[in-house]
């Protein structure tokens, strides 16, 4: 699976596990993603996929490297898609 496919699957999982915000973004903690059985089966390297998505400005979170346990409460924010953002403005 290539990086783009992994990032796309990550966005689906964040929407499944996260809470939608007023601006159309979704928020989930790293611990929720890391401990989810479905995510564990999909992502061989969850942290690497998160970093790739952050580099592409699809999502944001504090810090560079997330570690299980230490960073379980770090909030990951999936930015709203351009279509969702424009409909939220309307």
From TrEMBL:
BP term (GO), one: regulation of actin filament-based process
Record domain Costars: where: 1-79
Q: Pfam families from the entry?
A: Costars
Q: Which Gene3D superfamilies match?
A: Costar domain
Recorded family membership: Belongs to the costars family.
UniProt name for this protein = Costars domain-containing protein
Q: Which organism is it from?
A: Saponaria officinalis
